[in-house]
Amino acid sequence: MVADRLEDTKGCYDVVVIGSGLAGMTAANYLAKCGRSVLLAEQHHNLGGLATWFTRKGGHIFDVSLHGFPVGMIKSCRKYWTREIADSIVQLKGIRFDNPQFQLETTFDRTDFTRILIERFGIEPDVVERFFDTARSMDFYDDKAMTTRELFERFFPGRSDVVRFLMEPIAYANGSTLDEPAITYGIVFSNFMSKGVYIFRGGTDKLVGLMKAELRANGVDVRLRAPVKCVVVESGRVQGVVVGGKRIAARSVLSNANLKTTIKDFVGYEHFDGDFVDKTKAVRLNNSSCQVYMGLRKGETIPYIGDLLFTSVNERFDSKALCAKDITSRTFSMYYPDIRPGLGRYAIVSSTNANYEDWANLSDEQYRADKKHLVETTLDALEKYLPDIRSKIDHVEASTPKTFERYTRQISGATFGTKFEGLEVSMDLSKQLPGLFHAGSVGIIMSGWLGAINYGVIVANELDSYLLTTAGREVVT
Ligand SMILES: Cc1cc2nc3c(=O)[nH]c(=O)nc-3n(C[C@H](O)[C@H](O)[C@H](O)COP(=O)(O)OP(=O)(O)OC[C@H]3O[C@@H](n4cnc5c(N)ncnc54)[C@H](O)[C@@H]3O)c2cc1C
Question: Is the pTM of this model over 0.70?
Answer without folding.
Answer: yes
